[in-house]
Design a protein that fits this description.
heterodimer, A: Lyase, Ornithine Decarboxylase, Chain A, domain 1, TIM Barrel, 13 helices, B: alpha+beta, Arc Repressor Mutant, subunit A
Chain lengths: 442, 79
């Protein structure tokens, strides 16, 4: 006699408060069976679990959407790939192939870009800490240096003297753009005159000249008007500098900060409602440039978008190792990926999807990682059907900042896979092992 | 009388506890387990009986039945 199909036993208290016009959370299941046509189960079987998976197709789509929003309004626009967002070599290569130059914030990122064949002139060197030796190399190689503070100006003056050259620089400025708390840590303040004084200092040395003005107003900016305000102040400073120092500002750089379709904690509306579109951002910036440009030539426009170009292209696949019932009745799943791999779990509610439909009603569950640490919680309250040992969960969007900030802690840092434009998956980074962990230990 | 025996079960897999005033949604297999519990079957007997009828490994079934027992305790339906 054939046996009956098994379904895990469930019992759930009926809470009539949960009934609403929006439907019941008891039966809703979020399912992701594949990424770019490849089954998530096939991906974990072939490449292991946990594993980061990146879609080249999605990266291209995000890049093209944003780029065309700007280039259709403004002809001289250049994207710079923000290395810190995701500096896996193959990811950087995708964005360089699409036309991005490199935007780096450390000597290590600078070296990475150079190793990928990016010429100095195509590297924007940002950040508050640029060691002298590395700054000198960047100057010698013609990188675009964006000055952050007066000490860096002193260093640059010294380098200019040593090399007997006049260095062309850009200045990073911060300002009140109507979004609080204001980012005032980086660069020179516009409103209190620090930025102008720093520019005076440059010209007084006769060893430096200003060719660009840069700002990076924040991250995950939900108001495109903030860019309108920033562009206004940059264009005002540009006019002032061009008038007072008879010098052409060849480019302006609005930095990054465009939001991706991530669910920021504390925001309860759909991302489709709260996230500005590429057109919103592009219109806010380019309209102001056209309105306020007083010089004969329009400045080249640089953007250092990271998150909005990669976040939605990245997934973390993780496997259920087991589960237990907590004294409060919640079901706690033990996964093979934890907060060591999901740095952004502090700020974002991820989209968590199962690999297929599971029979049974949803119940309040908690997702724990594999770390022997009480804080290793990926999701504290999620309604899930009864899952099996071996169920694969897709966590997204995790393309931005998660891989670069993933810690080698307790478990080995996982592998990463790229699904290319032809729909073929391949390793772009293998899983770490003991030799990786012990490397350079003495 | 055991609390579990006070549950009123209907054909739609809804259980109601008159004294607590709570209703519960079950599935077929949890309803079967509750009926076996009412017959004073031990956990091992429950697992053996279900194993004969369902396409599932003993180990998986044992974990799932234990989990259901934990949840029944959380709801105050088992001691």
């Amino acid at each position: 006699m054939s046996k009956l199909t098994y379904e895990k036993p469930t019992i759930n208290k009926i809470d009539f408060v949960m009934a609403s016009k929006y439907g019941s959370p008891i039966h809703t299941q979020k399912i992701r069976t594949e990424i770019d046509g490849i089954s998530v189960n096939e991906l974990t079987e072939k490449f292991g679990s946990p594993i980061f998976v990146f879609s080249e197709k999605k990266m291209e789509e995000l890049y093209n959407n944003l780029y065309s929003a700007f280039s259709s309004r403004y002809s001289d626009v250049q994207f710079g790939w923000s290395y810190k967002t995701n500096y896996l070599n193959e990811i950087c290569k995708v964005f360089h192939r699409l036309g991005s130059c490199a935007e780096v914030v450390s000597e290590f990122e600078y070296q990475k870009a150079r190793a990928l064949g990016i010429e100095g002139k195509d590297i924007i060197f940002n950040g508050p800490y640029k060691p002298y030796a590395d700054l000198k190399i960047a100057v010698q190689e013609g990188a675009k240096i964006h000055v952050d503070n007066l000490f860096e100006l002193d260093d640059l003056e010294k380098i200019a003297t040593e090399l007997d050259i006049v260095i062309s620089l850009a200045i990073r400025i911060n300002m009140d753009i109507g979004v609080y708390p204001q980012w005032s840590r980086f660069g020179f303040n516009y409103e209190n005159g620090d930025a102008y004084e720093a520019i005076e200092r440059m010209y007084a040395s006769k060893k430096m000249k200003l060719v660009g003005i840069h700002s990076h107003i924040g991250t995950f900016m939900l108001d495109a008007n903030a860019y309108r305000n920033a562009t206004t102040k940059i264009m005002q400073l540009k006019e002032q500098v061009e008038r007072d120092f008879k010098s052409e500002i060849a480019y302006i750089d609005l930095g990054g900060g465009f939001a991706s379709k991530s669910n920021l904690k504390g925001i309860y509306q759909s991302t489709d409602v709260v996230i500005p579109t590429p057109d919103d951002y592009a219109e806010a910036i380019t309209n102001v440039i056209y309105d306020l440009n007083k010089s004969e030539k329009l400045p080249k426009l640089y953007l250092e978008t990271g998150r909005a170009l990669i976040d939605e292209a990245g997934y973390l696949l993780t496997t259920v190792h087991g589960y237990k019932r907590f004294p409060d009745g919640k079901k706690g799943y033990i996964l093979d990926a934890g907060v060591n791999l999901l740095y952004t779990s502090t700020w974002y509610n991820f989209n968590i999807e199962t690999d297929r439909h599971y029979e049974g009603e949803n119940e309040p569950s908690l997702l724990n990682g594999p770390l022997c640490m009480n804080i290793d919680i990926i999701e504290e309250n999620i309604a899930l059907p009864p899952l099996n040992r071996g169920t694969v969960l897709s966590i997204s969007p995790v393309g931005a900042y998660n891989y670069t900030q993933a810690m080698q802690f307790i478990r080995y840092k996982p592998a990463a896979v790229l699904i290319d434009r032809d729909g073929k998956a391949r390793y772009i980074k293998e899983v770490d092992d003991l030799s990786t962990v012990n490397y350079k230990e003495i | 009388m055991q609390v579990i025996s006070q549950l009123v079960l209907d054909e739609n897999n809804i259980a109601f506890h008159p004294m607590m005033g709570n209703s519960y949604q079950l599935n077929n297999i949890s309803k079967e387990i509750i009926l076996l519990l009412r017959d004073n079957k031990s956990k091992y007997e429950v697992v053996e009986l279900l194993k004969e009828r369902y396409d599932v490994s003993y180990n998986e079934l044992f974990i799932d039945v234990s989990d259901l027992y934990s949840k029944l305790r959380v709801y105050g339906l088992m001691v």
